Amino acid sequence: MRSGSNETGRGSGLDNSEEQKCTGYNGSGEGFSGKGYLKIVGLGPGDECLMAPQALEAIHQADVVVGYTGYIKLIGPNLLEGKDVLSTGMMAEVERCRRAVDEALSGKKVVMVCSGDPGIYAMAGLVMELLEVRDLFKDICFEVVPGIPAFVAAAALLGAPLMHDFASVSLSDLLTPWDKIEKRLKCAADADFVIAIYNPRSKKRAGHLNDAIRIIKAFRSGTTPVGIVNKAYREGQRIQLVTLDTVNEQDVDMQTVLIIGNSSTRAVSGKMLTPRGYAGKYDI
């Protein structure tokens, strides 16, 4: 879509220096052969007020915005006004990334948007692989603009569950073999990491969450606190604090993040707290 321009995105406190980073030179100090650039932008958890000013400015400066249809909907229409918007549905990640690369190669200022942070289970890595395979790093300026990750948003809503070492594990076996996911779960549970679970359950993977809970329960108590956050900072947000023994898979879908406490995590006034260790060292 294409429409009139506006000034939405201004007032972020940024000047054009970030754009200049993508129009002059590559990392080796040599000039880019083309004028286009490609920025992979994290939208954060969903609420525009939690989007980084640099991300807002990147979208404002773009000629083309590319993204999964559901993520495009997270951007205010006024911010998209005047942009070419290229969107695809689920399972079209490679096509989406190729289109973004081709648009940048043609000389356009391109932003690909991702929910959360683009470098965590998102598109930054795939775009880099495509640029590498096609030997285009010399031709296209590539940047990643960070966003608040989903597990960080979930943790904020739950209190302070990530105050000590933690691991993040996706239960999607679309790109990762299930036996490798099982090994990672076992190692994280055995090492007493707090564990953030991404992609916990879908129609095709209805049993993976129960399998993950079973694996983790071999290493920690069934009374371990578990935070379940669905649609963090989006319409329909739901927050639950349960235990390993009482996780209900029916409360979980692909828009849910679970945070499973470690051996010291406890529930405090309906929130999760994983102590950092101050009470053992200082008089608090």
What does this structure look like?
The strands form three sheets. A five-stranded parallel β-sheet has the order 3-2-4-1-5, sandwiched between helices. It is of the alpha/beta class and about 280 residues long. It has helices at about 15-20, 55-60, 70, 75-80, 95-105, 125-135, 150-160, 180-190, 210-215, 280, and strands spanning about 35-40, 65-70, 85-90, 110-115, 140-145, 160, 165-170, 195-200, 225-230, 240-245, 255-260, 265-270, 270-275. The N and C termini lie far apart (about 60 Å). Helix 5 (about 95-105) packs across helix 6 (about 125-135) and helix 8 (about 180-190) runs parallel beside helix 9. Mean pLDDT is about 90; it is low at about 1-20 and about 25-30. The radius of gyration is 21 Å and the shape is elongated. It contains ten helices and 13 strands. Strand 12 (about 265-270) and strand 13 (about 270-275) form a beta hairpin. The protein is about 30% helix and about 20% strand.
